[in-house]
Amino acid sequence: MIVRDLQGRPVIIGGGIAGLMTALHLAPEPVVLISKALLGDDSSSVLAQGGLAASLGSDDSADLHLSDTLAAGDGLCDGATARRVTEAAPGAIEHLEQLGVVFDYDSNGRFLLGLEAAHSRKRIVHAVGDATGSELVRALSAAVRQTPSITVLEDVEVRRLFAEDGEINGVLAVGSSGAISLATCRVVLATGGIGGLFDLTTNPLECFGQGLALAARAGAELSDLEFLQFHPTALDGPRRPMPLVSEAVRGEGAILVDDRGRRFLADTPGGELASRDVVARAVWRELRDGHRVFLDARQCLGARFAERFPAIASLAREAGIDPAFEPIPVRPAAHYHMGGVAVDREGRSSVRGLWACGEVARTGLHGANRLASNSLTEAVTSAAWVAASVAGASRNTRTRLRPTIVPPRPDASRVRPIASHALGIERESETLGEAVRTLAPIAAGYDAASDPALVALMIAVAAHRREESRGAHFRADFPQRGTGPRSLRLTLGRTFEAAASLADWMPATRLDRRA
C-alpha cells in the first residue's frame, strides 16, 4: 500500500530521544515519525539510567568537558565535532526543560550534578535519580503528540529504504495492516544501537542494528564499526535485557570486589572510575578466571541506596538482593556502539537524502571509546543540526516506487552466539575469521537472519582489519596501541569483498541490493 497523503514529507525512523528531538526541531514542517513500538516503549532511550553530560558546574567549562571527551576517545575523536557538542550541551539542557523534562535539583535549586568515569568534574545531569532516559522519553513523547505537524506511525517496522542512483526515494515498512510504502527524498535514521546482537546486553533485544542494515543496503558508508562499548556493571542474573547498574553508583563511591572480597581495581589508575573499557576488561578477566564480581555500595550509600537510585534498588530487589546490605553481582554487557553510519557535521550520510542521528550515527564525537553520558547529550544536540539540514534540503520527490518483495521480520537469534563469541571484550584473528566465514552466506541471503548477520559481518570485518588495541576494541593478538587507520569505512560491497578474501567465499547470486 502506497500512502499518498503523506508522500514527500521527511520520514524519521525511530521513536527514541534522537528521533523525537529531530521531529520536534522540524516543526512546523509536516513530518512522519515511524516507531517500531508504541511511542515511549521498548527503546534503548527508555532504559538509559545515566544522564546528560554538560558543563554546568561553577568549576567546569566546555573546554574541560572537551578535554575529557578527547582523552576517552583515545586519539580517534573528531575534535571539531566534540567541541561543537560540548559547547552546545548546556543550551540543550535548557531546551529540554522548556519541553517539560524535570531534572534533579539540590536544595538550593541548582542542578544535582553527578560524577562518572573519566570525567574530571561533576557534570552529569539526571532526572528521577536513575531514570533519566525514561523521563526524557516521557516528556518528548508528550511534546510530539501535542505537535500537529508530526504524524506518528506506531507499531510499524521499516524493512528497506528505496534508493536509486545514490539517492533516497522512499521507505518500505510493515504494520498491522501489511506493507506500507512512503515516497520521500528525506529520511532520518534514529534507530539506536546493536546490543541485541549479543547474548548479554543492556539494550532491547530488538536493537540489533537495523538502521545500519538499512543504510548499508541503500549504499551508505559505515564507519568505526569495531568500537563497541561493554558496560562493566550489568546486574548478573537471568533477566534479558540485563538491567544496568549505572556508573553513577561507582561515582558515589561503590567499589568492585571479587568473590574473595578483593578489590581488584585498587592499583588501577582511576580505580572503579577508570575508563569503561579498562573496567570492563578487568571485570571480564575476573569472570574468565572463574571468579564472581560484585559492586559493593554498602559503605558509601548503605540505607540511602534506594533513595539515590530507586530504579536500580527495585531491580536488585526483584533479583533477591538488597543493595543496602548486600553487594550486587555484576558482569559486562554490550551497551553502546561508537560506530555507525558515517555522517558529516550536519548528519548527512554518503547517500543523498539520508541522515542519521543518535547512536546509529558515527559523528566522530566518541572516537574509540565513549565518555560516559555523552550519548544522550549527542542525541539532543545533533538532532537540531540534523533537522536544520533536512529542512534546507531539496524536496523533489520521485513518486514512482518500484514493487519489491517485503523482507521477513528480522530475527537475531541465529546470529547472537556468533557475535557473542567473536566480537566480545577481547578479540583475535582466528575467531574473527571464523565469524566472517559463518556470517557472510547468511548476510547474502534473504531470510530473517540476513540483516542481523550483515551488521555482525561488517563489525567482524572492521575488527579484523584493525590490528591494534585502542579504546573499546581489544585484540588479544595485537594488545598494544598501534598505527591503525584513523577511520575505517565500509560499504556493502567492500564488506563482501573483504569476506571473500578472508573466507575464500563468494555469494552464489548477486548481492542483495534491492530496496
Shape: globular
Under CATH, the homologous superfamily of one domain reads: Succinate dehydrogenase/fumarate reductase flavoprotein, catalytic domain
Number of helices: 15
The count of strands amounts to 19
> From the alpha-carbon coordinates, what is the Rg to the nearest angstrom?
22 Å
Reported by name, the CATH topology of one domain is: Flavocytochrome C3, Chain A, domain 1
Oligomer kind: single chain
Determine the fraction of residues in helical runs and give it as a percent range.
25-40%
Which strand-content bin applies to the residues?
A: 15-25%
Uncertain ranges = 509-515
Tell me the strand order in the biggest sheet.
6-2-1-10-17
Mean pLDDT: 93
Structural class: alpha/beta
CATH architecture label name of one domain: Alpha-Beta Complex
- Largest sheet at a glance? 5 strands, parallel
CATH class bucket of one domain: Alpha Beta
First CA to last CA: what distance? 15 Å
Enzyme class: oxidoreductase
EC number: 1.4.3.16
Subcellular location: Cytoplasm
Function: Catalyzes the oxidation of L-aspartate to iminoaspartate.
Descriptive overview:
The chain is about 30% helix and about 15% strand. With about 525 residues, it is of the alpha/beta class. It has a domain of about 100 residues: Alpha-Beta Complex (Flavocytochrome C3, Chain A, domain 1), CATH 3.90.700.10. The strands form five sheets. It has a five-stranded parallel β-sheet, covered by helices on one side. α6 crosses α14, α12 packs antiparallel against α13 and α13 runs antiparallel to α14. The two termini are about 15 Å apart. The C terminus is likely disordered.
